[in-house]
Structures are given as structure tokens and as C-alpha cells.
Design brief:
By secondary structure, the chain is α/β, with parallel strands linked by helices. The protein folds into two domains: 109 residues, no CATH class; 224 residues, Rossmann fold (3-Layer(aba) Sandwich), CATH 3.40.50. The protein has twelve helices and twelve strands. The strands form two sheets. A nine-stranded mixed sheet has the order 5-12-11-10-9-8-1-6-7, sandwiched between helices. Strands 3-2-4 form a three-stranded mixed sheet, covered by helices on one side. Strand 9 and strand 10 form a beta hairpin. Helix 1 packs antiparallel against helix 2, helix 2 packs across helix 6 and helix 11 runs parallel beside helix 12. It is globular. The two termini are 40 Å apart.
């Protein structure tokens, strides 16, 4: 069981992370929760007595998501003033949050049951940066396999339009344009042909369900209203044409997909974003072993690659790493990025 002080420290770490990503409202809430958590509610007691690693389990974001849901439902007017940025004094914010945990205890408690589902189309821009490098190196045809797909928003990567520092990719008439602030050299302007996109999640989310959509919207930080509009457009794309998303254990699914025949002239790519920390250690080991074994058999006509956007929480940034076979399978960091893809900086 985590020490209560370690739990409070996790909320302070989350505040620093939010502040580094231009999210002062969410950061202020995280900081105030670090001071105001008590055992007066079942929610507060469960948070303070958290059985695992509160940072690795994204405990602060679980609770903040529940509070944001109350705000969005109009169930707590004072809390809505906090999420609107109208109440900024830490003492006042802490009092409002402490009251919300008691008054809305029953509604908040279930939000602690699972990790936050921070589905974000903007992360596809970071992944696309790596995919364009693979297309330059091995040719345009890519077969994409994503683990931890959640609601499948990254599985729309072949249907989004991207402007990556002036490098364009995707359909010109796409309903969603993703244009992050660009820093550094743009990725190569090369043809890219995503021939298939498949994904898995242990518990995929069905965005045809209104409650699921509301839950996903609650995990979007109040500081980024533009993300709300983009998410709504992505939901409409899923309604128009669903994605290939399986309910499966990540390691089982990766091993099975790597055993399938691979078309000649197509690069097979495993990709994921902000997923690795949630996988069990044994699952991580199996995926690494499966990729390295398949990589050892890769040839120029059937390349294999691994593109991943995962956090370095110590540096408060996301990092884009790329491995490919043939070519030694060496891990190389290609870019750093905002947690939600608001900016990308190539290295």
C-alpha cells in the first residue's frame, strides 16, 4: 500500500506535469487535491490508501476525470467555477474540492476503478512523424498494429489530415485536420499508403454509447477546449465507419499478429501511445521478445518496425522512439512532444 504522503506527492507531480504542458487549471486542481484529501469520504480514503503506485496508476487523473464529469454535467456549480478558471486561489479551490468529495462521494468513487482513458487524436501526429520516416526508408506501404487502442481514435490515423510543419499527409477532404505547433525540421514529404490498421485493447470502449463519450470527454483537460471539438469530430468518424478494434490482451494479440503472413513490400508496424506503463511487466517482456524474434527474421522486402510515443515523466514530456528491422533494431528517439500532441519537436 502506498504511503499517504506518496499519494499526495503523486498529485504534486501531476501538477508539475500539467504546468509544464500549459494546463494551469488542471494543475491547480491537482495541487489543491494534494492538500485537501482526507478520509471524510470513501473516495478520499480510497485515494489515500491506494494499494499500488499512485503515479504509475495515474491516480490523480482518475480523480480529476470524475470531478470534471461533475462539472460537465452541471452537477456542482462551485466546482464548475474552478474548472472554468474563475476560482484561482488555492485555499478556495481546496475548500470547493473537499466539499465536492463529500457531497458527490458516490458519483466519484467509481472513477478510481480504472486508468484514465485519455483518447486524443492529436497523438496521431506524433505517431505519423515516425511513420513518415519509415515510409521514406522502406517504401510507402504500411500495415499498422496498435495496442492499447482504447476507443480507437488513433486507428483513424489513415483518415485524418496532417500538417506537420508543412509536411502534409492524409486525405485532403478529411473531417479532422491535425496541425500541431511544429518545432525543428519537418518529417520527410514522401508518399505513404496505410494498407491496413488494426488495434486491440483489453477493454475497448464503444463510442456509440453516449455514456462512454461523456466519460472520454471528462478526461480532456479543461484547459484545452479545442480538443473537445476535435474529439466530437473523431466520434462522428467512428460512427460513419468503425475501426478494426479487438478485445484482447496486448501480448497475446501482438504474438498472434506477428505470426501472420506479411505481404511483400509492406512494412509491418507495431505502434502505441501512452500505453506501456499500464501493461504488466510480463506482458512488456513478451512483447519485446516477440518483436525481437520477428525482427531477427525481417528482410528488406518485409520490414518490421516499432513506433511508440511514451512519457518521460521526469522530464514532463512524451518521447517518440523508433526501432526497425532490418537495420539492427536499435532504439532511436526521433522527437519529443506535448502529452496531447499540441506541439512536436523533432530531434
Amino acid at each position: 500500500m502506498a504511503d499517504p504522503w506518496a499519494v499526495r506527492e503523486a498529485f504534486l507531480i501531476q501538477r508539475a506535469y500539467c504546468d509544464a504542458h500549459s494546463a494551469p487549471i488542471t494543475g491547480r486542481i491537482a495541487g489543491a487535491l494534494a492538500d485537501s484529501l482526507t478520509r471524510e469520504s470513501r473516495t478520499g480514503a480510497r485515494v489515500l490508501d491506494w494499494p499500488g503506485d499512485p503515479t504509475a496508476d495515474a491516480l490523480p487523473l482518475r480523480l480529476i476525470g470524475g470531478l470534471h464529469a461533475l462539472d460537465q454535467a452541471g452537477a456542482a456549480p462551485d466546482l464548475s467555477r474552478v474548472f472554468a478558471g474563475e476560482v484561482t486561489g488555492m485555499d478556495a479551490v481546496a475548500l470547493i474540492l473537499a466539499d465536492a468529495l463529500i457531497v458527490h462521494d458516490a458519483a466519484l468513487l467509481p472513477w478510481l476503478d480504472g486508468p484514465p482513458q485519455t483518447n486524443e487524436p492529436g497523438r496521431s501526429a506524433v505517431l505519423m512523424t515516425g511513420l513518415l520516416e519509415l515510409a521514406r526508408r522502406f517504401g510507402p506501404k504500411l500495415e499498422l498494429l496498435e495496442i492499447g487502442s482504447s476507443a480507437g481514435l488513433n486507428l483513424l490515423i489513415d483518415r485524418y489530415r496532417f500538417d506537420l510543419g508543412g509536411t502534409n499527409a492524409g486525405p485532403a477532404d478529411a473531417p479532422v485536420l491535425i496541425r500541431p505547433e511544429w518545432r525543428g525540421a519537418p518529417p520527410p514529404q514522401v508518399p505513404i499508403d496505410i494498407v491496413s490498421v488494426r488495434g486491440c485493447d483489453l477493454r475497448p470502449l464503444d463510442t456509440s454509447d453516449a455514456e462512454t463519450r461523456r466519460r472520454l470527454m471528462a478526461y480532456i483537460w479543461a484547459d484545452n477546449p479545442e480538443r473537445h471539438a476535435r474529439m466530437e469530430a473523431a466520434f462522428a468518424m467512428l460512427r460513419s465507419r468503425p475501426v478494426d478494434l479487438a478485445a484482447a490482451d496486448a501480448a497475446d494479440w501482438v504474438e498472434a499478429r506477428l505470426d501472420e503472413p506479411q505481404a511483400r513490400g509492406v512494412t509491418r508496424v507495431l505502434m502505441h501511445s501512452v500505453v506501456w506503463q499500464y501493461l504488466p511487466v510480463e506482458g512488456q517482456r513478451r512483447i519485446r521478445a516477440a518483436m525481437e524474434a520477428a525482427g531477427a527474421c525481417a528482410i528488406a522486402e518485409r520490414p518490421l518496425a516499432w513506433v511508440r510515443m511514451e512519457p518521460d515523466r521526469g522530464l514532463a514530456r512524451q518521447e517518440l522512439w523508433l526501432r526497425h528491422w532490418p537495420g539492427g533494431g536499435e532504439d532511436r528517439m526521433r522527437a519529443i512532444a506535448h502529452a496531447h500532441g499540441l506541439w512536436v519537436e523533432t530531434l
